[in-house]
Design goal:
DUF2637, DUF2637 domain-containing protein, transmembrane, 71% helix, 297 residues, membrane
């Protein structure tokens, strides 16, 4: 993320950009290459341990290929339906178990055939299967981040291009949450003006006006007004910077729920965001829902 600068030269909260997305995609391809290398080692061990027959070797090479295809589907196709997504996860885990057991047995046989010690025979296959598991989980995590940033990037670009002359202050105004205006009263305005005038006088003039007398007490009528003024700002915590680029799609999901007459709960709001390709964790749903509710109502 690249921080922007406001009119006073101070940095403001960053918005997602292409550099962040490119960095994640480069990590994706690096992990995919490493995963392909690990599965190639597993496939080679399967083929070496199989009988010297094309059919037997094809059967032995199938399970690593099936696992790689399942991992690609899991990392590239987002989950939109919970039931179908659960079935897909269970099927992928089953394929991974089958491929892991097959690879382990074949690698044990290959290591025994080439005279390795019993420690190497039973521990070496675990390193290959463990590497495949680590790379698969890393790919799933990065794919989730890529989908989240890709969904928020068009909204951020729209606000950046639609601001007044493209100024950073216009970008901040687009992401700002409306705040209630402070109430004012004639009594408080008069007290403020009196204090400003007294402050602008120099020290000798203030002493001559005081004449050695104690300063008069402030009017008690201004106290309730001042108390009302200080009690009116919104006490809500600001939205975290990492969620500000999701305000527009979240507001759209909130509006669709209201239009459909659906009770707006945290689970319903999270499901609506998932339908838009924004699977967020529970810790991020609550502040985002609060900010959208304050903005829309």
């Amino acid at each position: 993320m690249t921080p922007a600068s406001n009119d006073a030269g101070r940095t403001v909260d960053p918005v997602p950009d292409d550099a962040q997305l490119r960095r994640l995609r480069l990590m994706q391809w690096t992990l995919r290459g490493t995963l392909g290398l690990a599965l190639a080692v597993s496939m080679a061990a399967n083929v070496l341990h199989a009988a010297p027959d094309p059919v037997a070797r094809s059967i032995a090479a199938w399970s690593p290929l099936a696992l790689y295809a399942a991992i690609e589907v899991m990392t590239r196709v987002p989950i939109r339906n919970r039931l179908l997504g659960g079935i897909r996860i269970v099927a992928t885990v089953a394929i991974a178990v089958i491929a892991g057991v097959t690879s382990y047995l074949h690698m044990v046989g290959v290591a025994e055939r080439y005279g390795e010690s019993w420690q190497v025979v039973y521990l070496l296959p675990i390193s290959v299967d463990g590497l495949v598991a680590v790379l698969t989980l890393s790919l799933l995590d990065i794919a989730s981040q890529v989908r989240t940033i890709s969904a928020g990037l068009p909204v951020a670009r729209q606000h950046l291009e639609g601001g007044a002359a493209g100024t950073p202050s216009a970008t901040l105004a687009a992401f700002a949450i409306p705040m209630p205006a402070l109430a004012s009263s004639p009594a408080s305005d008069g007290a403020t003006a009196s204090r400003t005038t007294t402050t602008q006088l120099d020290e000798p003039t203030r002493r001559r006006r005081a004449g050695g007398r104690r300063p008069a007490s402030r009017p008690t009528s201004a106290a309730p007004s001042q108390a009302k003024t200080t009690a009116s700002p919104d006490d809500a915590e600001p939205l975290p910077a990492e969620l500000r680029h999701l305000l527009e799609p979240a507001a759209s999901a909130y509006a669709d729920l209201r239009a459909a007459g659906t009770p707006i709960t945290r689970d319903a709001f999270a499901a609506a965001l998932r339908d838009r390709g924004l699977p967020l964790r529970s810790a991020k749903i609550t502040p985002l829902l609060t900010a959208v509710r304050d903005r829309c109502e």
